[in-house]
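To: structure subgroup
Subject: Chain for Friday's discussion

All,

I'm putting the inputs and outputs inline so they're searchable in the archive.
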Amino acid sequence: MDFEQELAHNRISLAKCKKVYNVVSIIYLGLYGVSLFGSIYFMILSLFDPSYFALIIINAGVIFTGFMGAYKKNDLFAALAPLIALIDLFFSAFAILCTPIAIACGVCTIIANRKYRWLEKQYGFPYFNSRFINQVIDRDQWNIKDPYTQQLEELKKNNNNSEKMDEL
């Protein structure tokens, strides 16, 4: 595979990783946001029952760890979100529908995180565009001075020190 094709392949892979992160975080927010809202609503109706308070904390934990797993690209949080969702099975009847989706989202996030870490090590990250790579090379070449410019700077530096003529 030549260089341009590799950059294009990596650019498409990075776009897929970002799409997975966005979809997973929307699923966490939508699914467990509805569950969180329902828990708050039923807690108010039941005059602040402690079991609903535990359910609120669990749902908020799933949302938080799911987001952190996706946007911070941390596998620990991505694996922790489905585990907290499994704990939710003991407190909520709605969790029977949500937990398999949370497990699938956790697995997808971990796979995307591993692909993202591999892409970080590839040449051209995060743009994977030859135009940006050429600009970086041009910028580096611009900072390299030719021998004549170096000699001129040395002469100017030496002449600046001799202007003080304290000996006369």
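Points worth raising on Friday:
The chain has two domains: 3-120, 131-161.
The radius of gyration is 28 Å.

D.
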